[in-house]
Q: What sequence folds into this?
């Protein structure tokens, strides 16, 4: 550290920009969201997995090319002199912090594909990292819920994955008016690009262009389209195509004209062909009202092969994105295996829950103490640690004051402040092995034999668990 | 990727050495351990926190010097050209993967010390990283439970922290015969070094020497001791001192002779002075039998100031280590604040639980489905997705077969294999809105109205939750 004034000798350390410190109340909210993700996943029959926080860098460059390295946090062992020397010579680092979970999942499936029972239904809730400038809804480290269904190429897999996402949003208090799952199929996008006779080796550029469109003005989009070879006429057609929206069951789209021979194709028929079965599945799962066709959704990532979707609340970044990626497992050395899934981050989601007033006061997400133990006199104070310890070892959540006051009224105030369900008062009858138990909700108070306290506390706590 | 045989075109990606892929059954075991850590922490009145996975590198070099950088995984943004250029010019990376949680905790406490209610009782269960060669009990990425009690300099804080560690071991099935908490006080170590007139500016070297001792032969230790300036006579004294062990309540140690003037000090008196109050606290918490005085325990880290301890099962690395660090918060820019805590990793702990036969079959840690839904005919099969979806949205964990068989016996086999609590059979009475519910433990079977199924399932599930 630089020497100087006394103040500069005590450096103020801070979390790296775009990362978060989670104090108890912050983490309680995150755990609430993760808890909903986890229980909804399990209810829907998904098993939880996890992978390393760092992966070999080439796990990411393999599919996306070396350019991706500049969007990653790169990692090397400070101990490994070869690695350090290679890096200093201008190479890339050997590892990266995972920017998304799908490559890890693909690697794990490919490694054990022959011994895993089918279909594979997995979820994960790890942290992810992006070497980007932090902004609203976008941090450098964030939590992301990943849900994947592998080994089933039918629309019922897409539907089940979508139903899982919707169930979580519903459990968090959101409704189908507040957020929409905008859905498309890469087939339709490719069909449109084919009609325009756009060269297939540049389709990834087109996907990236479409992905940026929502954030651009019409003229910015036209300029970008021109820069990757679309004529003004093509661009007009693209704008028309990308603005097509409708409900899953009833939609009427304008026809599409083939560039070279003016052949016409009914987009409505194409959409019905591609979405008919999925629409039926979503209807039978009673979540069709959450979904909307939107031909502008492409998801930039190169690995999607069919259904693609984003979950969006107006004016915010996507809450979640996903789709079908039927070729990815094979490309990681596994067998051919159809797959679909989505990722949902915690940052945008928490912003939206906040904006819609769907988060309670942070305090309310902290676990409530089963009892707050109070010593009313000195003898009781001497016995308090042993009594508290026995209750804790029996599985109860017990708090007590660390202050030395014996002022019971004040300590009852502390018990309420700690949101305890009960107060256990160690008073004059302690030598008869008797304590006072006060239900802090009802105010009801009674004497309880100390040995019976666990039995008496248990149903009180169970009742509260059912209420909450 | 290198071109070559078709096989080499499908690269086999693997997790980085020393990191782990957690398939469902692996993660279920980890979640079981983490669940015990979390609930024991909450029962003992600790609040959960979390911090960033990466920290500024100087958070670690600040206390430990630049040498620590070679033991860390260093991190930089691939996007930030200045960072990349600085690194290539021979500098250190700006960030590191956290090797331990205490510096993050100290930073977080220092940043908000004035607004946090006292005492601060926090726990965290994040992943940590070490740039070391992986070996038994030591991985490059591992989970670690951190428990810290700040703002209280009395032995009751040490005792409560120790009680929390012991309660977790006990909950996991270990007993005081299988593992011991070996405890010492830096004061005693410093007293011994003072008697030997070893220069205080080299005490950190001595701590590191003592820390290595358990893994060394006597002559290796003597050689290392000589290399940092201990005479042969000093080394003999050190060996005597470091081999002193005893119970907390009754111990008889040989006296200690001062080097320069042959003054004698009773180690037994010293120990009683330092440990008397803590021993009383541990006794009143009924965990004294888990603890043993061991004057060889120093914990290498420079920040410990008082009590130090390790939890050890014979023949293994330490399960946990901790102690008192009363100066650390201040050194990170916070106010003077006494503190103590410990860290317990998942790798050694799981090895020991395995060795002692304390882990059940991995399958048994997976959450059990509340119901496995079976379609006995084609009409039922058409109705299955909607019925399953409604139960899931009501919070039930529901599985079903993705195979097309209508062979009920085979599907009941699948239900048992999935460890479901019940089977719900959609059969001929489905048009009367009636299904069969089979309790898979008792074999009992009865007709249930579909609308009443949630009410009927709920108590079955609650009963199971109480059994487990």
A:
């Amino acid at each position: 550290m630089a020497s100087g004034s006394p103040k500069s000798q005590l450096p103020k350390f801070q979390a790296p920009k775009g990362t978060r410190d989670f104090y108890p109340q912050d983490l309680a909210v995150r755990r609430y969201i993760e808890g909903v993700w986890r229980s909804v996943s399990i209810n829907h029959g998904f098993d939880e997995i996890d992978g390393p926080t760092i992966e070999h860098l080439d796990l990411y460059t393999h599919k996306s090319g070396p350019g991706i390295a500049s969007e990653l946090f790169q990692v090397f062992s400070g101990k490994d002199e070869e690695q350090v020397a290679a890096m200093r010579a201008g190479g890339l680092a050997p590892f990266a912090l995972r920017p998304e979970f799908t490559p890890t999942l693909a690697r794990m499936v490919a490694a054990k594909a022959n011994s895993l029972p089918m279909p594979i239904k997995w979820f994960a809730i790890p942290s992810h990292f992006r070497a980007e400038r932090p902004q609203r809804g976008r941090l450098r480290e964030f939590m992301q819920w990943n849900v994947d269904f592998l080994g089933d190429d039918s629309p019922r897999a897409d539907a089940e994955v979508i139903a899982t996402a919707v169930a979580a949003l519903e459990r968090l208090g959101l409704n189908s008016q507040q957020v929409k799952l905008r859905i498309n199929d890469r087939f339709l996008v490719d069909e449109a690009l084919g009609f325009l006779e756009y060269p297939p080796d540049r389709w990834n550029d087109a996907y990236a262009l479409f992905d940026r469109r929502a954030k651009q003005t019409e003229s910015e989009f036209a300029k970008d389209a021109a820069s990757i070879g679309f004529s003004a006429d093509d661009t007009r057609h693209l704008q028309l195509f990308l603005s097509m929206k409708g409900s899953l069951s009833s939609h009427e789209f304008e026809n599409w004209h083939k560039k070279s021979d003016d052949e016409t194709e009914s987009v409505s028929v194409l959409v019905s062909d591609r979405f008919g079965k999925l629409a039926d599945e979503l209807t039978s799962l009673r979540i069709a009202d959450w979904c909307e066709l939107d031909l502008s959704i492409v998801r930039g990532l190169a690995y999607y092969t069919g259904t693609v979707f984003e979950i969006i609340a107006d004016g915010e970044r996507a809450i979640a994105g996903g789709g079908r990626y039927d070729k990815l497992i094979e490309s990681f050395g596994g067998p051919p295996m159809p797959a679909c899934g989505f990722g949902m981050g915690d940052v945008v989601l928490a912003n939206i829950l906040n904006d819609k007033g769907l988060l309670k006061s942070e305090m309310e997400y902290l676990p409530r103490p089963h009892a707050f133990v109070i010593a009313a006199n000195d003898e009781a104070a001497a016995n308090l640690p042993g009594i508290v310890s026995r209750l804790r070892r029996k599985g109860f959540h017990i708090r007590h004051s660390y202050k030395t006051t014996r002022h019971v009224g004040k300590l009852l105030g502390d018990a309420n402040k700690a949101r305890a369900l009960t107060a256990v008062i160690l008073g004059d009858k302690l030598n008869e092995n008797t304590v006072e138990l006060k239900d802090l909700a009802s105010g009801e108070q009674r004497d309880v034999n100390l040995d019976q306290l666990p039995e008496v506390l248990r149903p009180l706590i169970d009742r509260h668990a059912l209420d909450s």
